[in-house]
Amino acid sequence: MHRTDTTAFYQRLQNKVAEYVENNLTASFGIGELAEYTHVSYHHLADVFRNTHAESLGHYITRIRLERAAMLSAYTPLNLSEIADATGFATKHSLSKAFTNHFGFSPGKAKTSLIRTNSINAVMDGITSEAHYRAIVQADFPFTFQERILTGGVLAGYTWHFGNTSPAYERTMPYLDGLLSMTLSGQARRCMKIFDSVNFTALRDYRMFYGVFSEDPGAVASGFDGLTLSIRPGTYLVFDVPPGDRDDIKHHITRFREGLVWHKKMFMLHDFYDFFLLHDGPDNGGEYYLFARA
Fold this sequence. Notes:
Helices cover 41% and strands 18% of the residues. The chain is built from 11 helices and 8 strands. Helix 4 (57-75) packs across helix 6 (92-103) and helix 5 packs across helix 6. This is AraC family transcriptional regulator. Keywords: DNA-binding, Transcription, Transcription regulation. GO terms for molecular function: DNA-binding transcription factor activity; sequence-specific DNA binding.
């Protein structure tokens, strides 16, 4: 392979790995299942991942499970056994041990403290302390929302990483026209999805999903080389995000997620799955979807 072909192959392989992990987080699986899914040998897949990431594939799978467990512990009323079931751990005891080893505090602590100094929230927003964080999320702000039932759908797009050489955010944008043309009758909207935890994923590991959303699960062509993620059917809380610059939009999303759900407990979630649907213009506001219940 030429270097460009090799780079593209590695990117597609990473996309397939992320796709499988995201869609099968509740199941118990290992590198063998991933190798079968990606049609690459066990050892080659492990080598490729190790060479393109700052962690092994096994560590990556465990980290994603634990970061999702931290989100569920912080934002939902699920008990530890239910969280273990939702993140592929055999028992609550195995989850608790792995959680404490990874984060340095117990799952219960995640219910009272959400800020890690190396997380994207802390670094990108300049948050220096728990008190600073609480001052942001406890502020009052106007908002409107509605409930909407989604019976199915798909997110199709690409991820960009802060800490490695994956395609940058700006480089993914030209792909959107192609993605939109792949959808049936143009029924797709540009979207950004919070792929990892803004509070529990270190900045160097953080990934953002950028692409399109369609309520038609079969809307994306089979030849698409990015990520295709099925959305969870159910009731979503849909918040209006007013127009403004990117910082204004970012702060509104933070307050929806942190202030209304975690701090004020105005909305009780039974799972944590969210994505932000944008209008065509980057500063035209949009709608922020939070999964509420099945």
